[in-house]
User: What shape does this take?
Amino acid sequence: MQGINIVRRPLTKTEINLLMEDIKLYPDLIYVKKSRLQGYTNAFVIEEDDCFVGVCGIYEVDDWVKLGPLVFLRKYHGKGYGKLLLTKIVSEYSNANLFISSTNIAVQKIISRLGFKEIAGYLSLPHKMIYFLIGHLYEHIHWKLISEFIRKLILMKRNSRKFYIKTV
Assistant: This one.
């Protein structure tokens, strides 16, 4: 994989529009508001030969860092970009407590190999992360999210959501 670059920067309007189209096809990602993607001022972006591949949002909450959503353009799925990006992020945050959740089996395998520990469920998360997630849901809930959840629940096969942490 030559020409791979991982940088921290905001997403461009073109990148956001590409992601918004592809998100409709993701069974494992319900819906992300355009404004949420526009709010990533310091996200981890992966590029190949100066072409946008994907992004991982980062939320710093006191002594915790919440990773995700992790979103790649569909044509780059299954080619190792997720492993590269998550390895870089975990390396940069080696002195922080990390949290990520996913229904994507490939992502679950990657984060398990990176030393994350699966947590029994949502209520087993550290309180700071539970409060963050509740606030985040409240901030981002809207009819499009609900309708996409129902559409994907009916039309697409999704795996169960798993929660992972890595502590220092």
